[in-house]
Amino acid sequence: MNAALRGRSAIAPWVLVAPFVVLTGVFVLWPLGQSVLMAFQQTFGPGHARWVGLDNFRAIFADPMFFTALKNTAVYTLGSVLIQMPLALMLALALNRPDIRGRAWFRLIFFAPSLVGVVFVAMMFALLFEKRTGMLNVLLHAITKHTPAPWNLDFPWLENFVMSALIVASLWQWVGFNMVYFLAALQNVPKDQIEAATVDGAGPIARFLAVTWPAIRPVAGFVVLLSIVGSFQLFELPYIMLNSSAGPENRGLTLVLYLFQTGFGVGDLGYASAIGWLLAIMLLTLAGLQRLIGGRREGDVG
Amino acid sequence: MSEGYARSMQGGLGGRAGWLAVVGLLLLGAGITLLPFVWLICAAFKKNEDFFVSMFLPPGDGFLGVGWDRLTFEHMVNLTTKLGLARAALNSIFLSSVTAVVATLLCAMAGYALARLRFKGSGLVSAFVVAMVAIPWPLLLAPGYRVLYQMGLLDTFTGLILPAVAPAFGVFLFRQATRSSVPTAMIEAARVDGCGEIMIFFRIALPMVRPMIGAFMLVTFLGMWNNFIGPQVVLQSPDKFPLAVAVAQLRGVYYQEYGLLMAGTLLAIVPVLGLFLMLQREFISGLTSGAVKG
């Protein structure tokens, strides 16, 4: 009977995994293989390609647009991680206090923006940053109306401060999402150690550094990595907010926006694939570094 | 929660003053978070000229000093009757529902097999799953487009749905869920009773991972609803566009029709926020399950 069962179960598992394997093969592995080949091709739309060897990579390393995109992406990533992470952690610490009422409501409110699609966030913030009618300028003007230097209603956020505008929009969207991760991590903080530290007379900062931070460090590392990876793939926000362009002097050009422009604007999917590979290599290197650093620190503690 | 812990947390930022500071910070944060939503709702019903008069609702002599009679449903009517947003909404509902149901089923099947069945090649498939999660999506954008072109799937819903129904992270999540909530003993018992392997999955395993089914369906639904780059690249006929693309295209054409643009945006996010209000727990556990279970 056992043998009969085994015979049957040799096919059944494959019936269950086959759809996943086939679809992944066709829509992930095949394109992945193609992307390797395409990085060495120049294409004219999806139907015509010619081999160009390493020309794509040579061109990219001599392409000022690519470096503009890389710089902008790095600035955006640094800006959003450095502002968002401490804020998310602060909100989580605040919501973790048992003496705060309505914590579920706060969590609901902070989390809600992350459900709104990036496209729709971009639509909203494009108009929030508008010159005469946008909420931000009108608000700043209303606050400063009676001061000697009232806010200029024509302040051009989307022209002069593209990156700040993008960082603010993504802060609004993701800070609550990251907060939920930190909040979950805070449940792992050993309460007896907090008590012991309090009894020993440790202040809030000392307690945070000695007990809380070591306990949430692995999750913090993960959230930072997730946020860096997400930031590096920024596309919709500038694409929509800047009206399908990269803004004045390409100030809003990001790596993926440039990949999109070369691949689907110009029609050179080969060049786009080469950019894609450079992006993937950067992200994998970052993930590897994070693992290396994270692993070593954990080793020190244990 | 012990008394000592509560006290130590209260002492965290200097007693009463600290508590006030924390509550102040939270209220301020919540206010800033809600402000764009409030602005959006007001803007969606405002006439264009009133954008220059007021930040939120136009002033007037109605209730609360608001000019209620100056508000308008015109944008909503125009969007749904003349500008094809009703069609786009249907497209979004169709694409998101089909993707959510099929992806959940396929991921649950594969996740169960990898967690509880032994078969040749299972190690390879598991390694696959982990490797796939690490691929950044922009890398597949250009080659994926060419593959869809070669298969003749450009400008079809099939070309949009098929690549989205077998996400590796879904298989990963269902493998974890199966491991933690489907006991091997139950499967063995069903086998002894003569139940087939496929029936065991549907009758026993699937009902036991129900919490993950709910959460994952919501996440994939939301993912397709908010997906912009996929339909933007794959679809060409305007009558096939989902809301994300249709609304974004309004900005190109009617870029100074503020009320119209915000009405379209509101129309697209209300269903999602409504779902969220009804099913908060599933949403939060689904969207953040990557870290906790990882």
Verbal overview:
The complex is a heterodimer of chains A (302) and B (294). Chain A has helices spanning 2-38, 55-61, 64-95, 103-111, 118-128, 135-144, 157-160, 162-186, 191-199, 204-232, 236-241, 255-266, 269-301, and strands spanning 41-44, 48-51. Chain A contains 13 helices and two strands. Residues 1-7 and 297-302 of chain A have low confidence and may be disordered. With 302 residues, chain A is mainly alpha-helical. Helix content of chain A is 74%, strand content 3%. A two-stranded antiparallel sheet of chain A has the order 1-2. In chain A, a hairpin with a 3-residue loop joins strand 1 (41-44) and strand 2 (48-51). In chain A, helix 3 (64-95) runs parallel beside helix 8, helix 3 (64-95) runs antiparallel to helix 10 and helix 3 (64-95) crosses helix 12. With 294 residues, chain B is mainly alpha-helical. Chain B is 72% helix and 0% strand. Chain B has 16 helices and no strands. Chain B has helices at 3-10, 15-44, 74-81, 85-116, 122-133, 137-150, 157-161, 168-181, 184-192, 197-208, 210-226, 229-234, 243-253, 258-278, 280-287, 289-293. In chain B, helix 4 (85-116) runs antiparallel to helix 11 (210-226). Chain B is globular. The two termini of chain B are 27 Å apart. The model of chain B is unreliable at 1-11 (pLDDT under 50). The interface between A and B is large, with 107 and 106 residues.
What does the main sheet of chain B amount to? none
How much of the residues of chain B is beta strand, in percent? under 5%
Distance between the termini of chain B: 27 Å
CA-based gyration radius of chain A: 25 Å
Helix coverage percent of residues of chain A? Answer: over 70%
Largest sheet of chain A, in brief, is: 2 strands, antiparallel
Overall shape of chain A: it is globular
User: Most extensive interface, residues per chain?
Assistant: A-B, 107 and 106 residues
Structural class label of chain B: mainly alpha
Subunit arrangement of the protein: heterodimer
The rough form of chain B would be described as globular
Distance between the termini of chain A: 49 Å
Helix content of chain B: over 70%
Q: How many β strands of chain B by DSSP?
A: 0
